[in-house]
Amino acid sequence: MRRRTLLGGALAAPLLTACTGKGGGSDGGGRTTLSYGMWDPAQVPGMEKIIAAFERQHPRISVRIELTPWASYWTTLKTSMRGGTAPDVFWMNAVNFQLYAAGGVLEPLTGHIEADATPVDRHPDALVRLYAHRGTQYGLPKDFDTVGLWYNKALFDKAGIKYPDATWTWDDLRDAAAELTDPGRRVHGFAAEMERQMKIYPAVCGAGGYILEDGRSGFGDERSIEGLRFLTDMVDRGWSPPQSAMVESIGRVRYWSEKVAMNYDLSAMAGQMYAVPALKDHGGIAVLPRGRRRATIIHGLANVISAKSRKKEAAWKLVHFMAGREAAEIQATAGATISSYEGTQDAWLKSMPEFELKHFIEMQEYAVPYPSSENTAVWENLQYPLLGAAFSGKGGIEGAARTLGEQMDRALKEERAS
Amino acid sequence: MSVFPATAASRAAGRGAAAAGGRAGPRGRRAAYLFIAPLGLGFAVFYFWPLLQTFYFSFTEFGAFGGHTFIGTDNYIRVVKDVTVWQALGNTIVYSLIGLTALPIAIVVAALLNRRGLRGVALYRALYFVPFVTLPVAVGLVWNWLYNGDFGLLNDILSRFGADRHYWVSDPSTAVYAIGTVMVWSTTGYYLIIFMAGIKGIPRDYYEAAEIDGAGALRRFFTITLPLLSPTIFFASVICMINSLQTFDLIYIMMAEKNPAIGDTQSVVGLFYKWAFIENAQGAAAALAFLLMLLIAALTYLQFRLQKRWVHYE
Q1: Does the keyword section mention Manganese (chain B) (predicted)?
Q2: pLDDT tens sequence across A208-222
Q3: Do the Cβ atoms of A385 and B66 come within 8 Å?
Q4: What residues pair up with A148 in beta bridges, in sequence order?
Q5: A48-52, B161-165, B178-182 — which is least confidently predicted?
Q6: Closest residue of B to A392, CA-based?
Q7: Cα–Cα distance, A174 to A414 (Å, whole number)
Q8: Is domain B74-310 annotated with CATH 1.10.3720.10?
Q9: pLDDT digits (tens, 9 = 90+) for B108-165
Q10: ipTM of the shown complex
Q11: Alpha carbon distances (Å) from A313 to A33, A109, A153, A320, A364
């Protein structure tokens, strides 16, 4: 992760200067220049195309991209909010959303949405709800991500097992993991990594547990613990590398180098998987196997407007445009992610015909939104230090999960008090 | 007086100042203040003002987007009650103790490099100094590869002697020492340069006299070099302790967020970073930073008190 962000930063540097070169501020002739804050350099070309289409419709408005590398995006944004130099429109994620909404720095959109009949209902409901705070909508989704099961067909063939499909349960996954593990060649059946979005949350929800409900932590819940145990058990049995090994080479990298036969990973990784010749040839995708119930985690980014912007009218026009069909279609063709607008995902599906990407879209039906509260980072930061030992094969997941539940409840209580 | 190794230079400067002070009229004095004004201004703006601010903020709670409320000593109570603070403090003390081992290593190497007739001293000096001027980010990344449990050079070498594969930086029992070793590796060169200068300052006559009296190399090292080097050692140990108590960057680079050993390696400054920049607890972070400053001041004071027992000036 860190290496990715460093790389992202390096890539972003030249782009940043290139973008800021294009003049700024609102200039004469009644033209308005909006600034648009984002962090992913891979999405700049797609965003530029969307902006070009927007500018054709609104000749009096021009949009300038402000790219900040992920590693410093949130600290920069927070500081620029205080200093009054924040972008007019910018990217938001679920982890940070409630902090910003509660802090009063985001422009409420509910009134605008009603007035302009923005097609909110064409976006996944779970995703739209992520960006509402106390009944008010503050952000409109632009894309989404679900977690699916990636598997290596060559390793399955070698072990002589059937490929995963929609009928699979956790028992099938366990059986296959056992068969696929080959200690002699240091190949593991599965990567039960300590990773919240891709492994922990889907497993907890799949077991019928929950992360956060009505301001209470679900980590002490018996079902949630069962979900966690599903993961740590794979480590204990040697079907997955321990966390101590995966901190040095993560599950995704092990899947790329064909040292792990099955891995839970994001739809956004499809492009990178596709670039690995072996995986393009024999990488498979299936929906997540069923535990006590079907579940995956859905998350997506949203466009929001700064409450301190002095160009809110123009900013709303941009956000409205970006929530519409035309922008979504451009993004699906040129962007690196799945557009959240219903029915515009075809272009993305067709861009990698060898992969059965449709499973990622199918899973929307039972996808659980990424859990968040006002100070998400505080309780999220409790997870890895407490669960690390259990994920390294040292046991004690029940105790660790209960402690985590208690500490998270305490953090949530403090959050409400402040 | 001669706490700093550049003794000759500072003595000369002292003499100059004394001579100037004797003659300076009001104009001269004004000139002197003008000369030190930029430094004083820098000190006031970048050091003293933030210090006061930190002290003030440590009694407040911060809003995420500006604005703060006064909450009295709550932040200090939180710091003292928080187990992770004590754990981080324990780790930091371990780092300091490991960090101090750079000093004996540097002294021995400096003594060896100062032997008469040794060739290529400049090259050795440069080689030892390179790790110190290398960015901690680069150092951390390279050492992470050396330590890597699956592909690392260290495990590769050890496995030739029949040892088991070990995850050095992700096993809580070895992680602190693995990072500490890198700390020592990257700072030894800095202290080496200081000690080499210190040894150069010891008059040759002492060694010659000792040699005539039949003292061997080891005897000369323990009875001449070490005692006469003690002011330099004192200076280096103060600097070394302060640096290791503030250690952050190497740990930040070497420890991934998902490392199972993260709680066992986090330093006080690492915790400060987490509170201030990730968890939005700037007030508590300020309290923590202020307490760390007090701790460093107290330990430095203690060192100055203790120096009377072991530091010899000529």
Answers
A1: no
A2: 999 999 999 999 999
A3: no
A4: A265
A5: B161-165
A6: B260
A7: 40
A8: yes
A9: 999 999 887 888 888 998 999 999 999 999 999 999 999 998 889 999 999 999 888 8
A10: 0.79
A11: 12, 11, 52, 11, 33
Architecture of domain A146-297+373-417: 3-Layer(aba) Sandwich (3.40)
The alpha-carbon gap from B19 to the nearest alpha carbon of chain A, in Å, equals 50
Tokens of B27: 């104009």
Interface contact A245, partner B, CB < 8 A? yes
Among chain A residues, CA nearest to B82: A407
Same fold, A32-144+299-368 and A146-297+373-417: yes
CATH number for A32-144+299-368: choose from 3.30.565.10, 2.40.30.10, 3.40.190.10, 3.10.20.600: 3.40.190.10
| Alpha-carbon gap: B205 to the closest alpha carbon of chain A (Å) | 55
**pTM above the 0.90 mark?**
no
Asked whether the beta carbons of residue B261 and residue A82 sit closer than 8 angstroms, the reply is no
Using 50, 70 and 90 to split pLDDT, how confident is the model at B7?
Answer: very low
Q: Give the residue among B270, B264, B300 at the shortest CA–CA distance from B288.
A: B270
The residue among B234, B211, B201, B257 whose CA lies nearest residue B306 is B234
Which residue in A81, A243, A391 is closest to B65 by CB distance? A81
Please state, in angstroms and as integers, the Cα–Cα distance from residue A318 to each residue in A54, A305, A336, A371, following that order.
7, 10, 20, 28
- Count of CB contacts below 8 A, A vs B? 85
For testing contact with chain A, the best of B75, B78, B153, B257 (most A CBs within 10 A): B257
B96 Cα to chain A: minimum distance (Å)? 23
Q: Which of A247, A253, A386, A414 to mutate to test the interface with B (most CBs of B within 10 A)?
A: A247
